[in-house]
Amino acid sequence: MESNVDLSFLLHALMPSWNSVPLLTGFFTYLAIAGSILPGKIVPGVALPDATRLHYRCNGLLSLLLLVALLGIGANMGFVSPTAISDRGLELLSTTFLFSFLVTLVLYFSGCESQSKGSSLKPHISGNLIHDWWFGIQLNPQFMGIDVKFFFVRAGMMGWLLINLSILMKSIQDGTLSQSMILYQLFCALYILDYFVHEEYMTSTWDIIAERLGFMLVFGDLVWIPFTFSIQGWWLLKNNVELTTAAMVANCFVFLIGYMVFRGANKQKHVFKKNPKAPIWGKPPKVVGGKLLASGYWGVARHCNYLGDLLLALSFSLPCGISSPIPYFYPVYLLILLIWRERRDETRCADKYKEIWTEYRKLVPWRILPYVY
Q: How is this protein situated with respect to the membrane (predicted)?
């Protein structure tokens, strides 16, 4: 009988609700306005196949800090509830999923109608509706002057932090705040803040420069990132975990090593794309065929940034201990995703660089983890 009650409660909690619409509308409206008017560095994107470049206003950090400050003031004055998100998490999840689905339908039909010949808006139609809806038709669709892809990536990362902060306030309110929760919150906050400090690096990532905007990216940005990356927080809200000092220190080391590899690799690639002659680790970069970087982290493994990402994901889960597999959903999922993505990257690079890629593979034989994979 209890399981039936729990199932009924779960199904009810998962139902999209109009109560969540103002939260999402307010969030997206704020991001659109703040992203357009707040000062920020204007960063030129990577040259597209037609030699054009998009330009991005990288003011995500200022937008995020201002948003958190406004919400803090609003909560202190009683205008908003600091636990509004954590009180209706599943409802927000399903509403955001429905929004993502509707947005991608709009992207699909508007993309089909596009007559643009430029690389960013030119429609790529395979004729397979499911394929085109999933992977998208246009590379960088625009709405009222806003680059929709860049906007959604920013929304997903900010949404993750807002969910975590609401979970934190809920644990304080319930009197269940633990060292494990503090450690998890600290690691995620540092990671997200660092992301926005280095937001311009995002402009040269594969998602921005090569992936078209379809359901895969929209769902990933708006639903998957904020709601699955925060599973550990939701779990700690209901489960008390006591960590030993040794476990906490080890967890910190995993986070720091992961951050060093992840941020270091991405920075090296970004700098190389801007200035191919910039020194790496104090030495001139080794370049294969004049195109592929084989120095620094990129001389250790062909996708070494994925290793850093995996270690960071693991560090977010380790504060939860080992009593349940649920908090480890994110690193396990990420492992599967990154191996799949790495295989796709390998195929694309082999097609794009031909014999140069073959030479690079001989020089850097390891894919992600040296001597293992």
A: Multi-pass membrane protein
* Residue 4 is assigned to a structural domain of this protein: no
pLDDT of 17 over the 80 cut: no
Q: State the pLDDT at residue 3.
A: 39
Provide the whole-model pTM: 0.85
For residue 3, tell me if it sits in a domain: no
Q: Distance (Å, rounded) from C-alpha 16 to C-alpha 95? A: 4
What is the helix, strand, coil percentage profile of the chain, to 5? 65, 5, 30
Token pair in block for residue 16 = 């999209």
Q: Which residues contact 290 (CB under 8 A, 6 or more apart)?
A: none
Domain that holds residue 333: 244-372
Q: Which residues, in sequence order, are CB contacts of 195 under 8 Å at separation 6+?
A: 60, 157, 202
**Each residue of 138-160: pLDDT tens digit?**
989 998 889 999 999 999 999 99
Q: Is 308 helix (H, G, I), strand (E, B) or coil?
A: helix
Exposed, middle or buried: residue 90 (CB in 10 Å: 0-12, 13-18, 19+)?
Answer: middle
CA-based max dimension of the chain: 69
The confidence score (pLDDT) of residue 13 equals 53
Q: Give me 97's structure tokens.
A: 């999923």
Q: Are the C-beta atoms of residues 364 and 298 closer than 8 Å to each other? A: yes
